[in-house]
Amino acid sequence: MNRIKIIxxxxxxxxxxxxxxxxxxxxxxxxxxSTNWNEALPLGNGRLGAxxxxxxxxxxxxxxxxxVWAGEPGNNVPKNVYSNIEEIRKLLFxxxxxxxxxxxxxxxxxxxxxxxxxxxxxxxxxxxWIEFSGHENYTDYKRDLDIEKAVSSxxxxxxxxxxxxxxxxxxxxxxxxxxxxxDKKKSISFSLSATSPQxxxxxxxxDGKLFFEGTTGDTDNKTGKVKFVGEAACTLKGGxxxxxxxxxxxxxxxxxxxxxxxxxxxxxxxDLSVNPTEKASAILAKASKxxxxxxxxxxxxxxxxxxxxxxxxxxxxxxxxxxxDVRIKEFANSYDPxxxxxxxxxxxxxxxxxxxxxxxxxxxxxxxxxxxxxxxDSKYTVxxxxxxxxxxxxxxxxxxxxxxxxxxxKDLAETGKESASEMYHARGWNMHHNTDLWRMTGVVDGGFxxxxxxxxxxxxxxxxxHYLYTGDKAFLKEYYPVLKGAAQFYLDVLQEELEHKWxxxxxxMSPENTYESSVGxxxxxxxxxxxxxxxxxxxxxASKILETDKVFADSVAVALKRLPxxxxxxxxxxxxxxxxxxxxxxxxxxxxxxxxxxPSGQISPFRTPQLIEAAKNTxxxxxxxxxxxSMGWKVNWWARLLDGNRAFKLIKDQLSPxxxxxxxxxxxxxxxxxxxxxxxxxxxxxxxxAGITDMxxxxxxxxxxxxxxxxxxxxxxxxxxxxxxxxxxxxxxxxKGKLKxxxxxxxxxxxxxxxxxxDVKLASEFKLAEAKGENTNPFYKVESIKEPLISGKAxxxxxxxxxxxxxxxxxVAGKTYVFKAK
Length: 822
Prior knowledge:
This protein is an alpha+beta fold. It is built from 20 helices and 33 strands. Pfam families: Glyco_hyd_65N_2, Glyco_hydro_95_C, Glyco_hydro_95_cat.
């Protein structure tokens, strides 16, 4: 009997150790406190954010609330600029490009005029400090972030006592919770205080709680009017709480739970009527009624509802036992596939933590920012960055996280009517390359960077893609006016260029790049043409699906036929501009004209091999190393080019260590896995998560392409929960680079078309038939585009297609289909 107990005990220990190691695979781990913000660990529940530093003697929780922005309601649309826009058009069509740029700069100066603004900065609330006397000397230090549970912890030994801290931003209780414990009773003594860099701020104690409050700052011609209130309350097991003027002191406690509630007066982008004190107090009172165990359990369950929808295993190595900062430093020269899996899931963790339904969308830094004037104001930059934030949403089974972006689009479709009408004398709505909490839609940062009226065109693609993945017809009907308003704007602003009589957007630009010295303003850039192509096709298809607006859709179809084709230039490159003006030594971070390759699907290896070759030549010419977000985009491009090894090379470039205080365009990753532009921008994290997904699964080209860009380093692995267009959920296992098992779950039913490597044969009780003709599934309609216009005398080498085959099988909604390789 004793022997049986011993064996059972050993088995239990073995299982426990195995489970512990398994959990560590989804942890960021460190053996020292953070001394820099880019080493601290992020927590968030969509609305509240915290960066945890983990210092034993003086813990800092740097705090954010998603609506703490400078300024006040109001748009930034300039008056009386239409005549100048008309003149800029004339200059461009006359080839007087420098004069056009000069007039653009004069009309929209680099610094905001006194009666306008160029957007408000997202700002920090401040920091909460937990200070322990006598903890400066410590051993056995450990710090981690468990992204499987969205919980961070710190443990160490001081004065012979082991202390532990647990932190989480509760998804269920809407507060930040901290638990302090020790392995010896009456050992927890500390002070609790708060600070804020806000000019208008105040700190006090009342009824045994710590209060911190403030008002956001003035910027340009706007007065800071967002008021925030924070409350921190302590629940003690043993010990005593003493309240001073602006500090709480706890002595000799066995255990302490700290709950932090923050609220603002923000109701919506035009209404600041909420009472922040009442809101913060109500949230805290409700959360305080629950035990820590219940709050912890409810939080983890609410988070895992989203996070557990996808699992990924790419292999493992001894590197995964090292601390995360060391793994980043050694990644370039070490086999560490598990770090790629961790980085993939970290992107999903960040999206869940910064973009919850009913809240604000993730901004340039998600929700994590410790400054009053962060880089680029931490706004919504929509000439790539905001869109990149949401690339993982549908494909990694986080469709709900997309909702805040959709909600913002409804707001922008209202505020954007002002910029469309006032600036362009057009119907519908538009915006330029930035917006903020107040949903501004005018030009930002002057006539060089800001005269790009395409932000709405790109953002509305997310509405259409959501429909393709979910088949939600009610959603499409709800957002049809937003899609239509964008199409109306471009119908009205398209101009006939003189040479080919094509319809083009003018003035505009290819984001942030130039074709002459200091000249970027232009007509008919390739990206603009691609964006309008998608806007027009989306509204035509939506009109058919909803059986509405046929006359309007017909007028759009007429204009669609007059858009310029994509062009191949003298260097066998995909042209960036209407004319062949590309420079072969251009290494600019923006490669906007490859939008047609990704995220759009206008360029395809199987449908447009000439354009694929031209896009590849452009990508090679621009080089690999760049800013973090740019390298994240390049991962996706190389995946679309079906070159998994080159995509993985970009991931290696991205996962190189970034200096903590670096600036410029070096890219890389900080010790806390944050993407470095530098400085920190969250889009690079999201871009790489999307890129890793696209290496494993693509569904934009009329079929579900399995393992299209698998690199040599991912020889064996498995994934579950990835989403494909048409409501399909896909799981795969592969060995030695070959598909071993496939699971398809159909949410909507209908035909499922698979693209497989030609040497893969699948066996199942379900019948696979070799595909013929166009996919009958309506979510896989592939838009035809005009043949490319190849200018100059450059010859294309031709693109070598992989050998694949297409198979069809019919699915029933709600049913799962399993296939195994023969």
